[in-house]
From TrEMBL:
The keyword DNA-binding does not apply. Residues 37-111 form the Lipoyl-binding domain. Its cofactor is (R)-lipoate. InterPro entries: 2-oxoA_DH_lipoyl-BS, 2-oxoacid_dehydrogenase, 2-oxoacid_DH_actylTfrase, Biotin_lipoyl, CAT-like_dom_sf, Single_hybrid_motif, SucB. This is Dihydrolipoyllysine-residue succinyltransferase component of 2-oxoglutarate dehydrogenase complex, mitochondrial. Residues 114-150 are annotated as: Disordered. It comes from the Eukaryota. The gene is dlst. Belongs to the 2-oxoacid dehydrogenase family. The lineage of its organism: Eukaryota, Metazoa, Chordata, Craniata, Vertebrata.
Length: 407
């Protein structure tokens, strides 16, 4: 124990007309000494998450400042950052890198206030040796893997521990690296396979003439940005069109309860929007889209996208969802068949916009066109409903006035 509690008397002058005695009141206070060691535990997870894998950002002996991230806990839905509660030095890691933890599991020990002065004095102590030649100036040691050709293609960044885990795999000019799949990637793979095994998936296609929506965006994007401080994109048009089509075709917004063998219809529209992150595909949910306009949708997409890029999405941001939209067009995709996001019954796939020759009133014109795909669970949704749903989306995106006229 590195703290001591003691009492300090404070004289309080309370005058009582019936007495000339001053009252003395004692306050109890405490002083926390430097070098106090605290144990930091795993924060509580959301209800649907029971455990996660630890990935350390710091090592034993590292100096950290208050609120600096010490480790990240990867769950099957999101990542949870664990910051240092105070400035100090990491004294002990209680869980190995990649180890599984539950809520409340002790993670590491931190010695408060220690090490900070040393970190500031380190440059001065090493100053006399600064004139020494840098290590890179020395001739490289003999290597067992041979010279690396200058035409070797670039490889994506790999975690530092990956090279240490399988050094025997480095032979000749070939480099084979094995990296453990994180929990999020494993969960994505499991859910996609579950969708294939459970749903009777069928995909129908159509194409959308993007001329009108492109012209509208070109005409109003500057004014929209000035007023709302966000950019006007194409995604809001498809999200709003999907909400309109889902209200028109309620079976696409429904789901089969395999336990009770019942069809569950929803009178609300919560649309999951697929977002690619370095750790995998996440699908945050825009709630109650049926009551939103284009501006509301753009703000919601911008907020969720920013949280995804900063790795700040919570489990609550991804729970639920009655329908999913995946936009492969941002990567240049021309055509594809999306996989249903269980337990939903359908998913809309957007693709790239390309100029193509199309027949307009008996004449060939060059128009910006997009292929769209709807993958649906054929156990619940018939072909007529699926095609009608996709044509509703096509009509709204090609002419947003359809929404105003409710046609």
């Amino acid at each position: 124990i590195y703290s001591k509690t003691f009492s300090i008397p404070f004289l309080i002058r309370k005058y009582d007309p019936r007495s000339s005695v001053f009252q003395i009141q004692y306050f109890r206070t405490s002083v926390v000494y430097r070098n106090e060691v605290v144990t930091v535990k795993t924060p509580a997870f959301a209800e649907s998450v029971t455990e996660g894998d630890v990935r350390w950002e710091k090592a034993v002996g590292d100096t950290v400042s208050e609120d600096e991230v010490v480790c990240e806990i990867e769950t099957d839905k999101t990542s949870v950052q664990v910051p240092a509660p105070a400035a100090g030095v990491i004294e002990e890691l209680l869980v190995p890198d990649g180890g599984k933890v539950e809520g409340g599991t002790p993670l590491f020990k931190l010695r408060k206030g220690a090490g900070a002065p040393k970190a500031e004095a380190a440059p001065t102590a090493e100053a006399p040796t600064a004139a020494a030649p840098p290590p890179s100036a020395a001739p490289p040691p003999a290597s067992t893997v041979g010279p690396i050709p200058t035409t070797m293609p670039a490889v994506p960044p790999v975690p530092a521990h990956a090279m240490d885990s399988k050094p025997e795999l480095l032979t000749g000019f070939l480099c084979v690296i094995q990296v453990k799949m994180n929990r999020m990637r494993l969960r994505i793979a499991q859910r996609l396979k579950e969708a294939q095994n459970t749903c009777a998936m069928l995909t129908t296609f159509n194409e959308v003439d993007m001329s009108n929506i492109t012209e509208m965006r070109k005409l109003y994007k500057d004014a929209f940005l000035k007023k709302h401080n966000i950019k006007l994109g194409f995604m809001s048009a498809f999200v709003k069109a999907a909400a309109y089509a889902l209200s028109d075709q309620p079976a696409v917004n429904a789901v089969i309860d395999d336990t009770t063998k019942e069809i569950v219809y929803r009178d609300y529209v919560d649309i999951s929007v697929a977002v690619a992150t370095p750790k995998g595909l996440v699908v945050p949910v825009i709630r109650n889209v049926e009551g939103m306009n284009f501006t509301d949708i753009e703000k919601a997409i911008n907020l969720l996208g920013e949280k995804a890029r900063k790795n700040e999405l919570a489990v609550e941001d991804m729970d639920g969802g009655t329908f999913t939209i995946s936009n492969g067009g941002v990567f240049g995709s021309m055509f594809g068949t999306p996989i249903i996001n269980p337990p939903q019954s359908a998913i809309l796939g957007m693709h790239g916009i390309f100029d193509r020759p199309v027949a307009i009133s008996g004449k060939v014109e060059i128009r910006p066109m997009m292929y769209v795909a709807l993958t649906y669970d054929h156990r619940l949704i018939d072909g007529r409903e699926a095609v009608t749903f996709l044509r509703r989306i096509k009509s709204v995106v090609e002419d947003p006035r359809v929404l105003l006229l409710d046609m």
